[in-house]
Amino acid sequence: MKINFMELVNDLACILRGDKSYWCGSYREFQIAPARLWHRELQRRFTLHPAVLKALESDHRPLDWHLLTLEWPHVSETDSTRLAYTRDERAGEADRQVVTTVGKYLTRHFTTMPDHEVRNLVALYAAGDSCKFVHTMAEMLHHLVGGPTSCMTKHLEIRCADRQYRHPYQVYDPAFGWHMAVRVSNGETVGRALCMQKGSDKYFVRSYRKTSDYSPADEQLEAWLESQGYTKQSRWDDGDRLAYYPTDDGDILAPYIDGNNRGVSLYGDHLRIDSSGEYECSNTEGVVSGSDRVTCEDCGRRFDEGDGYWVHVHEETHVCETCCNDDYTYAYSRNGHQYYIRNDNVVDVNGDYYDLDYLYHNNIVELADGSYEDMDNCVEIDGEWYRDDDDDICYAEDVEEYRLKDDCWQCAESDKWYTDDTEHVDVDGETYHPDNAPEQTTEE
């Protein structure tokens, strides 16, 4: 039987704010729990973070739901894309919250949740953006040209046999089930994905996220599409229909089709996706491909030579655009230069990507918690690296070095830290450096 952790958390929240009775084992009777006023105030000011609520409703058990409730994770007031929580009772009474990433918090409390589910929750509940579908060609072209870049976003108009000028994207006729999902932020199209719906079958192949250069996959938009019942496939299905527009020079209007199935065949008055089709839509010039093609060294598909990418540190492998977009990231690598590196060998450090095999070349270190950071923002303690603002470390005055707080003590008067090798004075339960200890009087 699945445990309803959302109900348990709500019950404990009532107890913490003093609104609910509980069973007291010592006296075998009901008592009113004494309220934690600081927690009551937290609950009044903040609701639980929506990503945490979604995680509690999932099939993954929280490591310690009592602690999660006490920490009361919520959207940070200073950065709506991050999460804030109260570390302990003392921090709660002082109204101090720790701000962290949503992903890091979910990983700590939901240890059995796979990485891809954590990423989806982080993407789905990022603040400030809105996702929607558009179903007309005019809207699709608007978001295509004004959104993330790709080989089809340029103002490319081809003269067709009926003397009308058309963009190659117009073969994705909404009458055949084609439509577009878009993510809009502050009025700007920052993400898009071409979608197909055939009855209850809804899917997409590729998403684009707007950056200053290359357009990677938009994880937030993909998470939203998944929540709408869409699945991500590696190719468009055979039989999906496209509009047929012959050009005035005898070619066929065609976009560069994303995914691993770019073949098309002509069926009467329309085209159909066909893996063994007589034509291939792998040309960025707006018509079906010619014969000047090469083979992708990763997937084996054919593509126009000028549309490929050279990948890896020595740039010895030639791959198609789809494989490069899906499997590689432009990252800092050997000698500080950037190359297309496989996604599974790349880490994101403060918005920049780095090759795991060449972290030292780029001044990046792995921290004790398994994350990565620029060495300039870190200190080394006993062979392990920590951010210089990590809550678990301190600057020890007696040795003038950074040390772990667990190996040090703090003077209650000066708030300075010292190693355990330095003597201290305990007065009324507080610890002081001898130079800062209050005078004590002895009663006769």
Strand content: 25-35%
Radius of gyration: 29 Å
Query: In terms of per-residue confidence, which ranges show pLDDT below 50 for 5 or more consecutive residues?
Result: 24-29
Number of helices: 10
Task: Describe the largest sheet.
Answer: 5 strands, mixed
Helical/strand content category: alpha+beta
State the distance separating the first and last CA atoms.
67 Å
Number of domains: 4
Task: For the structure shown, list the relevant keywords.
five-stranded mixed β-sheet, 4 domains, 444 residues, single chain, alpha+beta, four-stranded antiparallel β-sheet, 19% helix
Question: What is the strand and helix layout of this fold?
Answer:
Blueprint: H1 5-16, E1 21-24, E2 29-32, H2 37-45, H3 50-56, H4 65-71, E3 74-75, E4 83-85, H5 89-93, E5 98-100, H6 102-109, H7 115-124, E6 130-134, H8 137-146, E7 158-159, E8 165-166, E9 178-185, E10 188-198, E11 201-209, H9 219-227, E12 231-232, E13 241-243, E14 263-267, E15 270-273, E16 279-280, E17 293-295, E18 302-304, E19 309-311, E20 317-319, H10 321-327, E21 328-332, E22 338-342, E23 346-349, E24 352-355, E25 364-366, E26 372-374, E27 378-381, E28 384-387, E29 393-396, E30 401-404, E31 408-410, E32 417-419, E33 425-427, E34 430-432
Parallel strand pairs: 11-12
Antiparallel strand pairs: 1-2, 3-4, 4-5, 6-9, 7-8, 9-10, 10-11, 13-15, 14-15, 14-16, 17-18, 19-20, 21-22, 23-24, 25-26, 27-28, 29-30, 31-32, 33-34
Helix pairs in contact: 1-4, 6-7, 7-9
